[in-house]
Amino acid sequence: MTGVDKEIALHKLHVDPSFKPVKQKKRNFSDDKNRAIQKEVEELIRKNMEIYIDDMLVKSKKRSDHLGNLGELLERLRKCRLHINPEKYSFGATSIKFLGFMISERGIEPN
């Protein structure tokens, strides 16, 4: 089968529509658990990439880290059997338009 594996792209919530949503209570964790949660969140969340539907941006604070970050994105694409169109992507750009913003070494600015 070609394309994206169903385990990645297909999600279902088995919810009875007759049930009303219930807001959960705020959970309080110990300081060490809070630090562990924060560390995990910082590693799962867009540290090196910004992805929105079919737009992907690999970002790096240091020029020397960029190839590794780009390799991480390409490895994820390869794992999910996704392909990029080289005509639509620019590699090694120091500034680029992304979702209506200009992203450069100076930061993110409206276009």
Automatic annotation (TrEMBL):
InterPro entries: DNA/RNA_pol_sf, Rev_trsase/Diguanyl_cyclase, RNA-dir_DNA_polymerase, RT_dom
Domain Reverse transcriptase: start-end pairs: 36-103
Protein's name in the database: Reverse transcriptase domain-containing protein
Organism of provenance: Lithospermum erythrorhizon
Top-level taxonomy: Eukaryota, Viridiplantae, Streptophyta, Embryophyta, Tracheophyta
